Amino acid sequence: MPSPNEAACLRACHECAVACLQCATACLREPDPKPMAHCIALDLECADLCQLAVASIARGDEQVTAICTLCAQACSRCAAECGKHDMDHCKRCAEACKRCADACGAMSN
Record's Gene3D superfamilies (predicted)? Predict the structure, then answer.
């Protein structure tokens, strides 16, 4: 049974991974996706790290603290990049990333 911090982080990471994948897909569908390349790359990296964090927490891995620290860093970078754009999908992604960075930060303390 996960602790309250673990349960909150599991939810936040899952929601963030989904938001990042949706954002990357929406960016690729923009009329000119080339200017969104950095955003897309950070979305995909963040989604991967969120999914790794979910698996690590669920298994109770020994490296969960390090993984959550890395995930929080990736989420913060992705939130900053998505926050620069006016599209709704980027705004939603930035918010999900901020929540996840906070939840992962709580896991790594």
Answer: 1.20.1270.360
CATH number at residue 20: 1.20.1270.360
The rounded average pLDDT for each run of 10 residues, N- to C-terminus, in the chain (109 residues) is: 91 98 97 96 98 96 96 98 96 98 89
Domain hosting 88: range is 4-107
Three-class DSSP category at 105 = helix
Distances (CA, A) of 10 to 42, 64, 81, 95, 107: 20, 12, 23, 16, 10
Burial of residue 62, with CB atoms counted within 10 A of its CB: 0-12 exposed, 13-18 middle, 19 or more buried = exposed
Nearest Cα to Cα of residue 96 among 6, 23, 27: 23
**3 in Cβ contact with 98 (< 8 Å):** no
Structurally, how many domains does the chain consist of?
A: 1
